[in-house]
Predict the structure of AAA+ ATPase domain-containing protein.
Amino acid sequence: MNDNSQKLLVDLREKLKKGQIPEDLNENISVRLEQLGLLTSSPSFLPEVDRVNKYIDWVVSLPWNKRTDDILDLNRAKEVFEKNHYGLTGLKDRILEYMSVMQLNKSNKEGMARAPIMCFVGLVGTGKTTMAISIAEAMSRQFARIPFGGMGDPLDLRGQSRMHPEAEPGKVIKSLRQAQSKNPVILLDEIDRVTDEGRASIMGVLVELLDPEQNKAFVDHYLDYPFDLSEAIFIATANNTHGIATAVMDRLEPINMPSYNDEEKITIGKKYILPKALKEANIPEETVVIDDKVWSNLVRPLGFDAGIRTLQRTIFGLVRKVAKLIVEGKGTKFVINEQNVKDFIASDYV
């Protein structure tokens, strides 16, 4: 064995030693490294070193034993929900009830694992994703999102075998590495929007993910070793439930997300979106004043919209125009009224 080959193997062993991984997985990789030591004169040595190196990188980066401590204070949760969401009183109460059950079952992990899995169902822009983020914030858990829109292959979730060139783990394991916690809130976003070709097989993986008897030993093809997902909280979203398999729906608690009327949108725009847009642009709130008569154009620029995506785009666009005027030295305070609104929002909207 030449010095360079020896150093490569020593580096891999050191990297493995620094990771806090299950003992039997450590032993399996150590055996593979011993086998690699016998291949140093083979042309396959360096490619195999690269593959093992990539595998160890993944293994040691996963949160096998890392978790966050839950904060299940209902008053704190109410503050988070009120800060991030207008209205939705019934939905907020449902989540507080869910958290109350968690608090009463803190010492009973099996009971917690069997809690219903919420599925927010509603049109685009009605707050499904942001509500899931708020739940993670309220409980002081890490958050990760797995997008299902356009997904057509169950291997996207479960990963590919290391026998394949360029193989890597699936989105489930990637979400755990992103969260760096084994008990994050994982959002399964738009599970109804998978392709028709992959629907049946993807729904099969979803059943396993959402079943507490199976997800405590979820096996990604790339890792080829079980990972315990039972401490994660899964939340799903869907535009509708028509394309979701019955076996998956049996494991979900559908919660309808209501559409917003114009009055609610005006309140959301004034209290939530405009202050957020100004803060992100580093503009003091008193710099921009929007006349009450203008808000009807802002909330319904192109006709009815169930959600608030268009409203967000409109207000953020308005704030960007204000930012440009400030930088150009053309003012320090701006009152948006019926006479000048066309200067601040897209011409198609007025």
Observations:
- The mean pLDDT is 89.
